[in-house]
Amino acid sequence: MIDDIRLREDVLAELLWEPSVACDGITVTARRAVVTLSGHVGSYAQKSAAAAATRRVAGVQAVVERIKVRLPAEMGWSDGMIAATAAARLASNVFVPAGRVLIAVKAARVTLTGQLDWWFQREAVEQDMRALSCIVDLSNRITIQRLCSLAAPPAADRGDEMVEALYRAWFLPTGASSDRPRA
């Protein structure tokens, strides 16, 4: 097991390496593979990127996020302005069906609720909101409820398709022959 000092150094190195994080305001501590991030950054996107970079480091088992977002005073965004901006951004996202996601804003903290069909749609919404320069926190409570299509064959009949998709994603190097075992 990696010691706490080495883990802290590795996390700091990863934060310095990550171009989307201004880490001069971040403090890192490590204890028994649990890394705590404290301090402040200038946007929620940086806070999120710092946590993601920390989770990438080998040996990190958990991340405690205590980073505060300090928005520039001149921004002066009201919750109504933030909600309108978030709604406009959501409306322009081609992957998200209209009317399926609700946005609530309180003290520059955005909460997303609703139901979508696919995980990638949930991630697309979160990615859009994370990039807003006017928020300090984001809570994604969108659930996934995939409705079965009557036109699609039952899952039991789709085994070959699933095996082939996994094979393409994991085992087939670029330019290699497509000869592969069948399920």
Automatic annotation (TrEMBL):
Q: Which Pfam families match?
A: BON
Q: Which residues form the BON domain?
A: 3-71
* Matches recorded under InterPro entries: BON_dom, Lipoprotein_DolP
Q: What is this protein called?
A: BON domain-containing protein
Species name: Lichenicoccus roseus
